[in-house]
Amino acid sequence: MKPHNFAGQKAGRRALVISASFALAASASIFAPAAFASPADDKVEAAKAAETNAANSVAAIEAQLAQVSTQTQNARDLAEEAEASYNDAISNLVVAKQAADKTAQDSQEAQEKVEQARKALAGLARTIYTTQGSLSSLTPYLNADGLQTVEMRKVSVELFGSKADSQMRTFESIAKVASVLQERATQAQQEREQAASELKTQKDAADQLKAASEKQLTDLGAQRGELIKQLAAARGVTEQAEKERQEQIEAERKAREEAAAQAALKAAEEKARKEAEQQKAREEAAKKRAQEQKQTNNSSPAPKQTSTSKSTNKSQPKASNRAAKQENNQKQATGSNASRSQIIAYAKQFIGVPYVWGGSSPKGFDCSGLTSYVYRNAAGIKLPRRAVHQRGVGKFVSKSQAQPGDMVNYSSHVGIYLGNGYMIHAPKPGDRVKIARVYGNPVYVRVL
């Protein structure tokens, strides 16, 4: 009997199991459904991707448009500053011409008075000669130079008497005035010539900057047009429709800016009103305290003078001085607030007044004419006539510290700060006093 082969049986069974497994796997692969995306799913994914790409494209183009708008505004601001410099130079020349004409006229009138006084003295000399003197002794007094020296004046008193001395004094006084006016006329003429030279320099600079700005604006306009075209394609609308949409966006922006300007004025007026009320309340309270103190002093009997009371009396002037100093400081603080409110309220009434070169009255203002007129009449502060000189009157403050009533100064242009990034100013010829956005990088000057 052969021995039983258990190892062979195990190997056979193992091979049978493996074969069965492969067969089952094969049959499963035959009968299982295929796993692939449907055409509908592909279209949905493609649509989502296209929508995302379009949105990204629109956002990118709109960001570029916003950047172009910012660059365009900056270019306009630079052109406006250049124009302001030119207009300021024209105003300076107008003012210098007016001053030169006025001083020249004053000098001429003074010289005429000097000549009249000289003739009067000469007439007196001739009269005295006909009665009591020799003409040779009077010769020094009959020409222009002979009346100027102390020695000649001394001799004239001896020869002509007190009447001649009085006329000599009158002549000397008139001659001194004429000399001062002549110096002023000469200086005014020099300033006029300097203003004319400065005008030419500013005009050349303004023309160059204007040409550069116009080229930049043209380039930016072309870039904007191309971006609008791309944006229309990305949004799936016509180019005309996109242009109209952008125009509407710009109109809404300007409307918001105008509303912000009016809000700034309203806020400044409200602040001014509250400050005025607070000042009035403080003044009434101070007046009431003063009356009560006066009544107390009148009703209190005079204390008996002792060594202690004498010492107390000596200390009273010091206390009074301290109280007076505190009251004065309070008046200065409230006066500053009042002046700010008065400046804003006073400046507001000139909105709409036309711009006039060299103008400094409600009939017409240039930029520095407006500020000098407002600060002088609203707060009693006398400013130089030119914008570039006005910035040297007060102290500079940062943009974050600027308050209503401060000056906004561009060296060649100036306005009055309202707050919230807006100012009242006289911008340029053909325009009027108005509220406008503070543009560029001015300095803020506090004069209160």
Automatic annotation (TrEMBL):
GO molecular function: cysteine-type peptidase activity
A Pfam family: NLPC_P60
Composition bias, Basic and acidic residues: 190-207, 240-259, 267-292
Residue span of region Disordered: 188-207, 234-338
GO terms of biological process kind: proteolysis
Family of this protein: Belongs to the peptidase C40 family.
Descriptive protein name: NlpC/P60 family protein
